[in-house]
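Retro notes - structure team

What went well: the batch runner handled both jobs without manual restarts.
What didn't: labels got mixed up in the shared folder, which is why I'm recording both outputs here explicitly, each with its sequence directly above its tokens.

Job 1
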Amino acid sequence: MKIIDLKNLDESFFSKIEFENIDFTLQIIEDVRKNGNKAIKEYSKKFGDGDISCSKLSEEEINNAVKKVDEKIIETIKFAIKNVKEFALAQLSSIKEIETNINGNILGQRIIPIESAGCYIPGGNYPLPSSAIMTVVPAKTAGVKRVIAMSPKIQPVTIAAASLAGADEIYGIGGVQAIAAMAYGSETIQKVNKIVGPGNKFVTSAKKQVFGTCGIDFLAGPSEVLIIADESANPDFVAADILAQCEHDKDARAFLICFNHNFANQVDKKALEFLKNLQTKSIAEVSYSKSFAVVVNSLEEAIRLSNEKAPEHLELCIENAKNISNKFSNYGSMFIGNYSAEVFGDYVSGTNHTLPTNQVAKYSGGLSVFDFIKIQTYQIIQKNSLEQTAHNASILAQQEGLLAHKLASDIRIS
């Protein structure tokens, strides 16, 4: 981990990953669109997933997978599902259908769930049942009728998590071909209205290319955490949280903002000590070597730097963390206080771990129940209030030169 003073910080700290349209992903998408299951199977075999079926897992296959998972893991999955669902329900209750009267006209909004959603669950380096929970649960809580889950080299624990979370269909398909299948459909797969979930740069590029054909949540890059820590923080906690982020993949990044070199050195020393015996060392040490510790002179500098960085995960390991938390405006999810480890949000606390990276947090929040509903407006223009409405609409239509617009307004009061 590089330890530097704020004055020596360069643009590499703020660098973003650009998700260009990777040529061969476009070729795969087009092939799947034209050739369906044949193309899905060919690319799955080519990229190491073996001979796959393009049919959804049967009830028997799902039940057999669940039986293979340790009962303690099943109970933990159910605990996580319960918490994520409770938070999603609380979110859903924060919005409501409305109807109001403005100038004698009735205006309103309805809350309508989308009809279908596709949840992509990565399975490259590790099986990720937590991603099944975080994508499927809010979709079903929102009322989506058809939720499908796709994951490469799908493991029994991922099947169990997707099923218990409420997925209506589960497929052992991954990569670009999975995104294309969800966007365009095939002989055995019905296309969806929206695709959500994390993935590598090829999956992300594919999501970018199918956007418009269907909706997506956002373009997420490698995982990241930014930790702001003062002398009240525990260096061991901070070091462990940094490595928890670094082990995701070699492109993951951890950032520490602290107030003196002594604390940064303590964290670095402890992280290197932990790394020696870490089973995921081969991945974590690469990411750790490219991560930063930035020493600043004040909390104001730390806040400014954090808001500019807009990290996926933001940990506040500082005194009176809750009292100053409202000064932070750009982050995917915030973890307040020394005991609020980011790992809890990854798994079981209840907030969603599918979060914006790459500074997307400057304009978007993380995946939630709101991603699976539409706010649809309506209006009833009353005859007794028509004149004022039509008169003003006609003036603007005349100004814009759209005379058929003016006609459609004027004809109603002529």
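Job 2
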Amino acid sequence: MLKLVKIAVGSVISIFLADMMGLSYSTSAGIITLLTIQDTSRETIAISAKRIGAFLVATVLSYVVFRFFGYHVFSYGAFLFLFIACCGPLRLGSAVSTNTVLATHYMLEQNMTPAQIGNEALLLLIGAGIGTILNLYMPGKGKEIRMTQYRLEEDLRAVLLRMSEYIGKEDRSDYTGSCFDKLQADINAGKKQAFAYMNNTFFQESKYFIDYMNMREQQTVVLRDIYKKIMSMRTVLPQTGQVAELLRETAVTFGESNNARDLLARREEALRRMQDSELPVTRQEFEDRAVLYGIMTDLSYFLQLKKEFVDSLTKEQILKYWDGEESGER
């Protein structure tokens, strides 16, 4: 709805300004505004810059073609062929439609005087300029992403708590992977919001949410592997309680700003205790002990992913997203 309002208001403003300046074909300024307003601020700025570059190419080609072949429809066809051919390699394809409309004005006026070229340049600048200015305002997505983050972390916490519970049970018939469905859905939503947020802001720190969502997605892959290992176990060993407790501690202390160093230290301590315990007696105990070691390795990687994410943050990102306005009470 906001985009529609911007298009309507921006087109009216552009036509009004073009009329006030006495420009010919003033309605073209409104059409240019309509075509300029994109879904994100960055896209809008990028397409405006391309249209200005394409305008220079179109002006040169129009001058050459119309001067030597005359101002008629066949010359316009030749111009259009050359213009599209030039815009492809220059990656200006998205600017073709706007500038071909402006080129028709030269054909209709039967001249390309400096005044006429200036008229077309002003139409482009007004239309693209108004569209760009209006689209610089985008409603903040920070709160929306924060809500998704909250849901995502609750999902992860629930998965870890279920793991800590079912790893100590022999009967896991009611333990399914359905708990990952909501988790993955929230990750997908968060990634979409993160890219929208980055494309509507103009500072490097905005990449924080994308890196955060990617990190959580990688952790989810690890949790799926742990789930499969838990389901493969046939016995409950004395060492199982240590692993269950570590999973529980991870869930309880889980959070955005937790650097995972303490949890990694606890994991090493739990692993040492497992190594000091008595050797397995039966084949099944041996196999399940190996699975427990595999789970500990996976959990170490799970925590390492978080540590690497925290270590990669800049001071600006930490201030903005943990201690600043965007971080709220979290």
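One thing worth noting from job 2: The mean pLDDT is 82.
We'll revisit the folder naming next retro.
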